[in-house]
Write a structure and sequence with these properties.
InterPro entries: Lant_dehyd. By secondary structure, this protein is of the alpha+beta class. Among the domains are: 149 residues, no CATH class; 90 residues, no CATH class; 84 residues, no CATH class. Helix content is 45%, strand content 12%.
Amino acid sequence: MFSTKSKARHLGGGAPIKRETEVIYATAINGGDCVTAANYNGKHRVLVEVIINDILERTCFDKRKDIHRKLVTALAGYAANKIDLYMRHVLEFELGSLSEVLENVNLDYIMDSDELYIAILKKYPGLEPLVDHLGSSLIENFTLIIKSFEDAEFELVSNGYLSSVNNITNIFLLSDESHDANKNIVLFYDSYKPAFALKLRNITLEKQTNDFISGFLRENMGFEDWNFPNYLDHGEVGWVSWRPRQDLNSEKQITESYFRSGVLASISCALGITDLNHENIIIHAGSPVIVDLETTLHHCVEGGGSTNALRTGLFPSFLKLDRNGSPTEESCGIGNIFPEYRLKSKNNEVCFDNKIASPIDYIEYIKQGLRLGFAKVIQYKEKFVDHIVRIENFRTRFIFKATYSYATIIESSMHPALLKSAVIREEYITQCFESENKYVEGDEAKWGEIKACYLGDVPRFITTANSLILDSYYQQTPTTLRHICTGVSRTLQYLQDLNDKIVDEEIFYIEKSYAEAYRVMSVNAKSYEIENYQKLINCANEFALNNKMPVFFMPRNDYCLELKSCGLDIFSGIGGIVYLAAIKKLPVESTISDRIIANYIERLNSTQRN
């Protein structure tokens, strides 16, 4: 298992990044003894049972304590979901092969057959560092979570987060992307309702900023019913009251919600907040609520422009595509532009009468909220300046790439061909970070990125709002950013310059963002097939390779995966090719781009007629 102190490296040959111990994977494939107390019967039982038993044997686990038992159950579920992520493409590939020789075989059949499951594990030793790291990190996290809860138990009850320790009915680890050795948010249920969450990181800057925003909205803008979370700051960890997603009950609430989204966007601009994607916004009691403020006063590139709105992440930037190349979801924090039939339920969706209200239809209300919010920011600039000075030395997160970009690299490294060897998989990930990062000195940050992705974590860099010193969980030593403005200097300059002209510019770029997203959504309105698929892929390849994008895999059918150098991590597949053609970015003459679009639209029409 990896230690945060172990910094052995590998680049382009030799042994992979070293592990101090190898327990979970080896025990599973060698049929090691398992403690029956684990009693786990879910998916990936062979591996998860070993992880559970390690937790039972190597931590402070006390079977007499209900919270210990519930936490083990939560960690087992989390482990199963992570292993599912690691092995999904391997199992799809193996299932395709098995279905040729066995009848009625499915994933359940593989999961239920220990012998078959172990045989598959042995074929993919590249899984070993992922599984071992998962097991060791969950052992550490069990101890950390229990200690954190015991330290805060009295405060949680006395401050109304929890009615009684005896009323904790469920514990879950949120299984989105992980950071810093699987330190995901831990959600506690009180009487079967989500009540509060534990963040396994320092939350001082988040708490201070949350309190400032909620106070400003209430005292200076008159929003008495805008309910932000409450925070308990315990140094290296913190507790947050939970705000559950709620559907709206009237058209008036929809317009008010989008109006408030505009207000929230203006305040986010004034505080230099970024990464406000759909995971970090919840629609609660008719209002958008920020539940993650760790990127307040985010640093930015020198000369990065005078506007902030598109940097917040609240407006359309990335579109994710399905295997046919059709866009299925966006990552922005305000609403969702897609029709209801292609949606997954997200906490930031504005819903009424079981329908999604698209922000595109309510952009005038967003603009009204923006103008009012910016007017109040200008009126009370000194309040914002005072708050920034007060928090300038607190820790903030720094992001080189969008979370989705890192997640794409991690997922693509789970290709069956890459999992045949830990060395090959590591070399692939290293290639994804080949190009020089001109914004940081030396290679220390890059090695932090590589090691995090190798172990299945999205890299998470930490600095302070007024410093260019950068560190991360997987770095050996801190490093220094360059060609970067600190969040403090950038945001103070933004506030100083903020006037009606800049407000107009912010709104102009927001309108352009929605218009572009709507155009892509409209062109990619249906699933489709195109006969000359490979020719179009080759056209896109040239564009991708010229821009030094990494290699990703693409699914060809339900059970077969093929490694291709398509490199289109956001607009992949046919949808990406059509998009590049539409914006004249394919390396071909415009007549070819026009034919691609015409061919695509004709096939859309044909699909609709059929």
